[in-house]
Specification:
One of its GO terms (molecular function) is carbohydrate:proton symporter activity. It is a single chain. By secondary structure, this protein is mainly α. Helices cover about 80% and strands about 0% of the residues. It has 2 domains: about 1-155, MFS general substrate transporter like domains (Growth Hormone, Chain: A); about 165-200. α1 runs parallel beside α7 (about 105-135) and α2 packs antiparallel against α3.
């Protein structure tokens, strides 16, 4: 769920939701505001497209770390969309399905998605007054979360690239998966033994 918190609080949706207002403050007319909004979204699409090959080539953790650093700097030069699209856009959606064991995957992914939408809702509520009352402070607010996302990733997000679901227990130092596997093997053995027993009429 932490991935989804940072995915929203790094400022991407604040920028996307408020980009017409941002372009208006730059003196652009309505038509140009819409064109620039489209350019920004296409820029993010370029970043997201790169994740198709970069997640499995470089790993999730390095993408998140580099993305945090690039977005932190980008808030000061308004180039966040490519950095977000290549890192924090796709990776938080990929990792929950990779890290939860089969028995918990549906609940884990559901909680991650709920966290994403809750955080998106919070950003939608706080962004307009933040931009109106602080101006550039909104970028500083998001830049701080980009910095925090890098620190959090460094300390708490392990690399999951090229790891099987069975290896996730070792990655997270969790023994419950081993216990679940042993229980499943005992149940399978009991079922097979029961199936081999002679049938009495």
């Amino acid at each position: 769920m932490g991935l989804m918190v940072f995915q929203q609080f790094v400022g991407i949706n604040a920028l996307i939701h408020c980009n017409p207002t941002l372009f208006q403050t730059m003196g652009l007319d309505h038509s140009m505001q819409l064109i620039m909004s489209g350019v920004l979204n296409i820029t993010q699409l370029v970043g997201v497209s790169s994740s198709i090959w970069s997640m499995d080539r470089y790993g999730r953790r390095p993408l998140l770390l580099w993305g945090s650093a690039l977005m932190f700097v980008s808030h000061f030069v308004i180039a966040i969309l490519v950095a977000f699209g290549a890192s924090w856009g796709p990776v938080p959606w990929a990792m929950p399905a990779e890290i939860f064991p089969s028995s918990l995957r549906a609940k884990g992914v559901a909680l991650s998605t709920c966290s994403n939408w809750l955080n998106n809702f919070i950003i939608g509520l706080i962004t307009p007054p933040l931009v109106q009352n602080t101006g550039f402070g909104a970028c500083v607010f998001s830049a701080v979360f980009c910095l925090l996302s890098g620190v959090w990733t460094f300390f708490f997000v392990p690399e999951t690239m090229a790891r099987t679901l069975e290896q996730m227990d070792d990655v997270f130092k969790d023994v419950r998966g081993e216990e679940e596997f042993a229980k499943r093997k005992r149940l399978e053995k009991a079922i097979v033994a029961k199936g081999d027993a002679p049938a009495y009429a």
